[in-house]
Design brief:
alpha/beta, seven-stranded mixed sheet, three-stranded mixed sheet, 12 helices, cell membrane
């Protein structure tokens, strides 16, 4: 009940504001989060230093500042998704599929999603972007009310969201038409998960094996999505093929390759990844091998 009241009084009115006002709120939020509260600045700075050892202290601080500007934009843009109309929403995101969607129109797609740029916009617009039924795997929020609101807002333009623990059931079902599944592939796996270790941004990194596993089991074309920030509030979604023949890829090759794609886009535009996430909290055991970046 309290959650509903908070949403109705504080959050809902914000979602109705135009982008021009939302970005003024974002500017103020930047001052509060970064300058006053210093929200996770130690995590962000450590991640940046370890990922870019060649950069000077001043360069790291500049990336850090740009990241927090971007983070605050993401927050208000995510609120806007709760109430935005379809015609306005699709003015803020465009696509360039390089002809891949038509080329693989008869194949199921394993879509690699990441927390680079506005991942909310990317997931929400996915059905239109790939031109078929799209399912996105997600981790359920602890608050039932906000979990429901999140699913409603993200699925309003056709994307169907599935809890990660329901993935096996989904893949075991018979599907009459080609479909796409979005996997969030750049978070830190729990210790109970089977992982593949690779060198990512100059650090030993545990990577989810799920996308590769399901791509091989169901012969899915693996697509990496890149979200480009055109300007404030406007994005462009592009696609690259990781592999169209997963059955003939050696173990770990798919996981290694889509992490190389992500590494490249982060190195090109460092401020736009989610640096507040503790990506490297899991450490490798002695019996776990690191794959060479050679696939």
């Amino acid at each position: 009940m309290i959650t509903k009241i908070i949403y109705g009084i504080f959050i809902k009115p914000i979602t109705l504001l135009p982008f021009s006002i939302l970005f003024k709120i974002s500017d103020f939020l930047y001052f509060v989060l970064y300058r006053i509260l210093k929200y996770r600045t130690s995590v962000v700075r450590t991640n940046l230093k370890n990922s870019f050892p060649e950069k000077s202290h001043d360069e790291i601080i500049e990336i850090e500042k740009e990241f927090y500007v971007h983070l605050c934009d993401l927050i208000v843009e995510s609120f806007k998704v709760y109430s935005i109309k379809e015609d306005e929403f699709f003015q803020h995101i465009e696509y360039d599929d390089n002809g891949l969607i038509d080329k693989y129109k008869d194949r199921n797609l394993c879509v690699i999603g990441t927390h680079f740029n506005n991942f909310e916009f990317a997931a929400t617009s996915a059905t239109k972007a790939v031109g078929r039924e799209v399912h996105a795997l997600f981790s359920k929020l602890s608050n039932d009310f906000f979990n429901k609101r999140m699913k409603e807002s993200r699925s309003q333009f056709g994307t169907v969201f599935i809890e990660k623990n329901e993935a096996k059931e989904f893949f075991s079902e018979k599907h009459e038409k080609p479909f796409a599944v979005i996997f969030g592939a750049d978070q830190s796996p729990t210790y109970s998960k089977n992982v593949i270790w690779t060198d990512f941004l100059n650090q030993e990194t545990a990577c989810f094996f799920g996308p590769e596993k399901y791509a091989k089991e169901h012969n899915m074309v693996v697509i990496f999505t890149k979200t480009i920030k055109v300007k404030r509030g406007y994005y462009k979604l592009t696609f690259d093929v990781v592999t169209e023949d997963p059955l003939n890829e050696p173990h770990g090759a798919i996981t290694e390759r889509h992490n190389r794609f992500l590494e490249k886009v982060i190195q090109e535009n460092p401020p736009y990844w989610l640096w507040t996430h503790k990506r490297w909290k899991r450490k490798r055991n002695e019996n776990e091998e690191v794959l060479p970046a050679s696939f």
